Amino acid sequence: MGVVILLLALLVLVSIAGNVILGRRTSTPGALPLVDPLAADSEAYDPLRIGVGDIVTYAGVDHVVGGTINFDQEGFRWHEHLLDGPTGRRRLTVEYDEGELEMTLWTRCEGTGLAPGDDVVLDNRVYRQVKSGAVQFTAEGTTGTAPSGSMDYADYATADRSGLLAFERWAKTASWEVSTVRAVTRGELTVIHAGSVE
Q: Which residues contact 26 (CB under 8 A, 6 or more apart)?
């Protein structure tokens, strides 16, 4: 009987000690909350924490974030992540515009020979320019760009806004990169942050 009481007392002490340690771990200033990387809940990842080394799954295909480009246009900031996967490279843009999360997936169009103009035709669809300019950037990981600099861009859309097209040029002497763009919801992606699994 005494042995049983001793074992119960020991279990209570271990339980209390465990709770104290866990409480300290989660309340450490500046520490990120623990995230279950396998959770099916779309809220299980933080879009603003996506970075180099993370795994992003879209339509059942895993991609690794090989590089991230951080943009700053007069205080308005957004991030473009380069996703390497078995079907090639895609890009994922993450930004908050007026408090609303916006995420888009880009697929590069090779060999189009297109450059920005008044109207652009691709795959028998007519696109009209909606925005253009230049933006400052810094890069981390493998991006194929300079570590920092300025990028020229031009965004296009079809009349009904169902088609989006983007042009980017990383140097004044470089040719334009052309990509089709589609909006994605947070729930369409699963993200495992590189630092969330030990």
A: 33, 34
The pTM assigned to this predicted structure is 0.73
Return the amino acid letter for 15: S
| Residue 164 tokens, joined | 């989006």
DSSP annotation string for 89-111: EEEEEEEEETTEEEEEEEEE-TT
Cα(190)–Cα(59) distance, integer angstroms: 9
- In terms of C-beta density within 10 A (0-12 exposed, 13-18 middle, 19 or more buried), how is residue 181 classed? middle
Q: Are 141 and 68 in contact (CB under 8 A)?
A: yes
Please report where in the chains the tokens 């279950």 appear, as a residue: 36
Among 55, 40, 47, CA closest to 192:
55
Outline where DSSP puts E strands in the chain. Answer: 55-58, 61-73, 76-85, 88-97, 100-108, 119-122, 125-141, 148-157, 164-169, 177-184, 189-192
pLDDT by residue for the chain (198 residues), tens only, comes to 554 444 334 443 334 333 333 332 223 333 344 444 444 454 568 899 999 999 999 999 999 999 999 999 988 999 999 999 998 889 999 998 888 999 999 999 988 889 998 899 999 999 999 999 999 999 999 999 999 999 999 999 999 999 999 999 998 888 999 999 999 999 999 999 987 655
